[in-house]
Amino acid sequence: MNMLVVALLLWCDVICAKSPTGTFAPGLVTCPNTTSLIREGDSLSNSEKSWIDQRKQKTRGALQEYLSKVGLDDSLDLFENSSADVNIAVSMSGGGYRAMLAGAGQLAALDNRTEDANEYGLGGVLQSANYLSSLSGGSWLVGSLVMQDFPTVEEVVLEDPYDVWNLTDTRQLLETSGLWTIAFSVLFDSFTGFVKHLNNYVVSASHKVGIKYDMQRKKDAGFPITITEPWARGLSYQLLQEGEDDYGTSTTFSDLRGMKTFQNYDMPFPLFTAIGRKPNTITYHLNSTVFEFNPFEMGSFDPSVNSFIDIKYLGTNVTNGEPTNGSCVAGFDNAGYVMGTSSSLFNSFLSSLTCPTCNSLNVVLKYFVNRFLDYLSDNQLDIAQYSPNPFKGSQYAGSDSITNNDTLYLMDGGLANETLAISSLLTTHRKIDAVVAMDNGDNWPNGRPLIAAYERQFESQGKSLVVPYVPNEETFLHNNLTAKPTFFGCDASNLTDLIKDDVVPPLVIYIANRPYSFFSNTSLFKLSYTDDEKKGMVRNGFETAARLNGTIDENWPKCVGCALIKREQERQGIEPSDECEECFQEYCWDGKRYEPEGVYYPPVNFTDSGLTNDSFALVGAGEGQTYTSDTEVFGL
Ligand SMILES: *[C@@H]1O[C@H](CO)[C@@H](O)[C@H](O)[C@H]1NC(C)=O
Ligand SMILES: *[C@@H]1O[C@H](CO)[C@@H](O)[C@H](O)[C@H]1NC(C)=O
Ligand SMILES: *[C@@H]1O[C@H](CO)[C@@H](O)[C@H](O)[C@H]1NC(C)=O
Ligand SMILES: *[C@@H]1O[C@H](CO)[C@@H](O)[C@H](O)[C@H]1NC(C)=O
Ligand SMILES: *[C@@H]1O[C@H](CO)[C@@H](O)[C@H](O)[C@H]1NC(C)=O
Ligand SMILES: *[C@@H]1O[C@H](CO)[C@@H](O)[C@H](O)[C@H]1NC(C)=O
Ligand SMILES: *[C@@H]1O[C@H](CO)[C@@H](O)[C@H](O)[C@H]1NC(C)=O
Ligand SMILES: *[C@@H]1O[C@H](CO)[C@@H](O)[C@H](O)[C@H]1NC(C)=O
Ligand SMILES: *[C@@H]1O[C@H](CO)[C@@H](O)[C@H](O)[C@H]1NC(C)=O
Ligand SMILES: *[C@@H]1O[C@H](CO)[C@@H](O)[C@H](O)[C@H]1NC(C)=O
Ligand SMILES: *[C@@H]1O[C@H](CO)[C@@H](O)[C@H](O)[C@H]1NC(C)=O
Ligand SMILES: *[C@@H]1O[C@H](CO)[C@@H](O)[C@H](O)[C@H]1NC(C)=O
């Protein structure tokens, strides 16, 4: 690197990055030289387009390396055609810490920097991917990694030089030892009384360090405070490095633009989603607007909003994108806050204290906690408030219900059952060919996030969404589609009715959480993990994606290779090789559906070959470690 570049980077580190206030509070900056901060959501941004073009220079080679590593050299002819262009994405589902930890192991199995992933995993698929989408618990995983300049999962979990992801009792979000004092604040519907029980609420009173002061600073700067602010800061203490700004108090998501791996196109393009709540309602469904956060922009392709804003200037007062007071705001897109928004399901976490089978509170307290939850909800304190609304008066929006309000209300991306961040990722504008979708939602997954995305493409809001055919939940469970990886949309010729704007839905490589060496169906409400539990979850995630380290099917990495290039082969009119045909026999959904006659009881217990009702023991486990059913069903 020459001196000028170094100087520029250093300068940028000081000037371009972080919140201008140096704290959690957003602050004033000069507006960019454009009349409007927003644009119409009818295409990708120019920034994304040119970034992806550069990334493709890397992924093209990486995919060829992967294919030849797994023995698909014959298929490399594909790349002799200069217009060959394989566009791969990876999507990590939500599901609290379960999704973060199981997902971490799965991601490690896709990463060629993980030694064993090259040996018997899918190492190199991550290097071949242009996009990495996630939401909620998945956004903690992806957000934590990208904001640290993309270290490997192994480094974070095993070597842990940065002291992150310590989820032990003393470091968990909520300090639960004094349940009675929590109860008192709940009793008096005291929001502040309640958040005091977060760990790191006051780290240092004399230096004004801690969640309390962060909230105060943002409030003093004129922004509303809801549960998402303390939630975001609490998460940051676990997910981000201490650094020089107390675990990312002033670190913004758009700071990614200045990070080395991002600038060198050495990570996939990360994106998170959250859903919008219509003012004066508390409902959400498939028509709820799906918002996307990426390093350049925040906004939605859905017709209701159909607008994007430069994410760096969130917090600016705008009307139809024009700054109303002539000045702009930066620092609102705090990295932890973006992850906190995508996982703004605090209400659900808190309800865990009141769930019928939970014993932490007695009946009387449950009553008050429920009342407190209603209070938070009635006052819009349980979700994220993006105020001022970046899309106020947007001329591109198809519906004015969201754009009329001064505030944009956002919440957990997975609440409308779409626990995989697919709606935004699979917009026709991105032309994705294959997506590796890791499902760690529900206690054991049942395909619901794919079903939701599939259905959404037929709703008015899913106008630009393409998703291949998938069956009902009962088929997923009964036909073993969650017991082992399954490919959906194997044949483009079967998908002609789903094509939009000449874009064929991608092939989905669906991999569901299941136990090999650890019972990874931990509760969404499990807020603390011992070091062993954490490593057990991550190891099991690796084994899930690597088909028990190649012992179940040594052809698995090859089969994934066949799936990744299928669309490009179809475009070029090339037939898959015989070995790929065998893979498709083994892994493609056969199109059969299972319709139970009466009430359907999903199978319990697991074997290496699939879900069965036989007895089951963990790999390497001694006698007596048996499957225990986790009865909570939350699609988060
Ligand atoms: C702003 O942009 C316009 C058109 O792109 C250009 O003519 C003008 O000089 C720019 N102003 C500044 C201050 O850079
Ligand atoms: C991982 O893949 C990248 C991109 O193809 C390549 O440059 C790198 O050498 C690979 N690393 C290992 C350890 O295989
Ligand atoms: C996690 O934090 C606790 C308390 O601060 C500490 O005792 C423990 O050693 C840490 N664990 C790891 C794996 O770093
Ligand atoms: C904005 O949304 C809030 C919360 O739902 C609601 O109370 C308020 O009436 C809305 N304002 C307008 C102008 O619609
Ligand atoms: C979505 O909106 C369309 C058009 O308003 C409506 O026909 C459809 O029933 C809605 N779907 C859901 C799930 O609410
Ligand atoms: C945005 O506008 C509102 C209403 O005019 C005002 O109260 C608020 O202070 C403004 N915020 C900023 C950051 O300029
Ligand atoms: C989520 O899926 C379940 C089961 O299919 C269904 O009962 C529920 O209504 C769905 N929720 C939403 C918000 O669509
Ligand atoms: C699911 O897998 C189990 C165990 O391998 C097998 O017995 C069962 O027949 C499979 N079900 C279907 C529908 O293929
Ligand atoms: C599979 O590989 C992972 C990653 O190296 C390792 O942690 C795990 O112990 C292996 N599992 C088995 C059953 O060998
Ligand atoms: C190259 O690929 C394109 C599709 O991407 C196809 O239309 C064309 O026929 C191919 N050319 C050759 C020489 O195979
Ligand atoms: C694809 O189409 C063929 C021929 O129409 C049909 O036999 C097959 O069942 C279809 N496959 C799926 C998965 O729908
Ligand atoms: C599930 O496995 C456990 C442990 O092997 C066994 O005790 C139990 O009976 C099995 N359940 C069913 C329904 O087979």
Automatic annotation (TrEMBL):
Keywords: Glycoprotein, Hydrolase, Lipid degradation, Lipid metabolism, Signal. This is Lysophospholipase. Catalyzes the release of fatty acids from lysophospholipids. Phospholipase B may well contribute to pathogenicity by abetting the fungus in damaging and traversing host cell membranes, processes which likely increase the rapidity of disseminated infection. Residues 30-594 form the PLA2c domain. The lineage of its organism: Eukaryota, Fungi, Dikarya, Ascomycota, Saccharomycotina. It comes from the Eukaryota. InterPro entries: Acyl_Trfase/lysoPLipase (IPR016035), LysoPLipase_cat_dom (IPR002642). GO terms for molecular function: phosphatidylcholine lysophospholipase activity; phospholipase A2 activity. Its EC number is 3.1.1.5. GO terms for biological process: glycerophospholipid catabolic process. The keyword Signal applies. Residues 1-17 form the signal peptide. Pfam families: PLA2_B. GO terms for cellular component: cytosol; endoplasmic reticulum; extracellular region; plasma membrane. It comes from Candida tenuis (strain ATCC 10573 / BCRC 21748 / CBS 615 / JCM 9827 / NBRC 10315 / NRRL Y-1498 / VKM Y-70) (Yeast). It catalyses: a 1-acyl-sn-glycero-3-phosphocholine + H2O = sn-glycerol 3-phosphocholine + a fatty acid + H(+).
